[in-house]
Design brief:
The protein is α/β, with parallel strands linked by helices. The chain has eleven helices and 14 strands. The protein folds into two domains: 230 residues, 3-Layer(aba) Sandwich (Rossmann fold), CATH 3.40.50; 62 residues. β12 and β13 form a beta hairpin. The structure holds adenosine-5'-diphosphate and magnesium ion. InterPro entries: AAA+_ATPase, ABC_transporter-like_ATP-bd, ABC_transporter-like_CS, P-loop_NTPase.
């Protein structure tokens, strides 16, 4: 099915599917199972992060859908299967390797050469150089560029044909903090203009800062897929303190929303399995004759979630 229709407030919002991956597997050299039964959907307008430690199969997955790595089994489909992979990839901008241009040509000349090869009007060069903030340096030779500038030029180049989706593999690797900041700003700018983005990263804060959606991979397996907000909101926890924490704990143990309770520095940390508002909890306890001295609701950071997810899946 090409589109999913969702009815919100009587308006139909069409979620255009950019990429569908179904039960994808990749085995290198007969025994390295780099991607395990991966299924996912990429919808137009979102910024997706594939998050996972080194070796979790991120680059392999991107390589397969970009047709530079052969899959072992499973399927993927671009744009709802309306076109052949070869044609579909003309609507995809991707940077999966270190940026490489002609060193003795300027930034502008390099991009104009890409335009010639891909039959794109030269007017796009200026437009894309502005997005990546390289207009001032457009007449400098590529060889004089810092790694951050090279990466930005690569992004400009990938954007020349106004792709439907931009794919980036570890876009800030090797950059200094300022370079990292610039790239993240540019990614957010491109996303705000409506381009769908799929980026792979082993950095939690990168995904948290620039992505709307996250797919967590570990050893080729997907552990979580959903919104970044959903992941951070999913299992909030309370910090509670009462005069009698033992009584408090015994009352809480029977509450249907409570997953587990631990103690830290005289406070009970109450982890939730379903959402529970502070007011609701407070009222519940008050009815059981418990008056709280301290109540704070906290959310796990994505980092805590990520560590929890990866620690809980060490089955092989
Ligand atoms: P990531 O991008 O998440 O770091 P990769 O997709 O590069 O992960 O690698 C996933 C697994 O596949 C790793 O165990 C890696 O060693 C292995 N791998 C990647 N490329 C090859 C290859 N060309 N030949 C053999 N094994 C590979
Ligand atoms: Mg990689």
């Amino acid at each position: 099915m090409l589109n999913r229709h969702i009815l919100i407030n009587r308006k139909t919002i069409i979620l255009e599917t950019i990429l569908t991956i179904t039960n994808l597997n990749k085995v290198y050299n007969k025994y390295v199972h780099a991607v395990k039964n991966l299924s996912l959907e990429i919808h137009k307008g979102n910024v997706y992060g594939i998050l996972g430690p080194n070796g979790s199969g991120k680059s392999t997955t991107l390589g397969i859908v970009l047709n530079v790595v052969n899959k072992t089994s499973g399927d993927y489909q671009w744009f709802g299967g309306t076109m052949q992979t070869h044609d579909a990839l003309k609507k995809v901008g991707a940077i999966i390797e270190r940026p490489n241009f002609y060193p003795y040509m300027t930034a502008k000349e390099n991009l104009e050469l890409v335009c010639k090869i891909k039959n794109i009007p030269f007017t796009k060069v200026q437009e894309k150089l502005e997005i990546v903030r390289l207009t001032e340096r457009m007449n400098s030779k590529f060889s004089t560029f810092s790694l951050g500038m090279k990466q930005r030029l690569a992004i400009a180049s990938a954007l020349l044909n106004d792709p439907e989706i931009l794919i980036l593999d570890e876009p800030t690797n090797g950059l200094d903090p300022q370079g990292i900041h610039q790239i993240r700003d540019i990614i957010r700018l491109i996303a705000s203009q409506g381009t769908t983005i799929l980026l792979a990263s082993h950095l939690l804060d990168e995904v948290e800062k620039v992505c709307s959606h996250v797919l967590v991979l570990r050893k080729g397996e997907m552990l979580y897929s959903g919104t970044v907000d959903g992941m951070t909101n999913k299992q909030g926890f309370f910090e509670l303190k009462a005069k009698d924490n033992i009584q408090l704990e015994s009352v809480l143990e029977n509450h249907p929303s409570v997953e587990k309770i631990t103690e830290d520095d005289g406070k009970l940390l109450v982890y939730l399995k379903s959402d529970l508002a502070s007011e609701e909890l407070n009222q519940f306890l008050f009815q059981k004759n418990i008056v709280l001295q301290h109540l704070v609701k906290r959310k796990h950071s994505l980092e805590a979630q990520f560590l929890e997810l990866t620690n809980n899946h060490q089955s092989n």
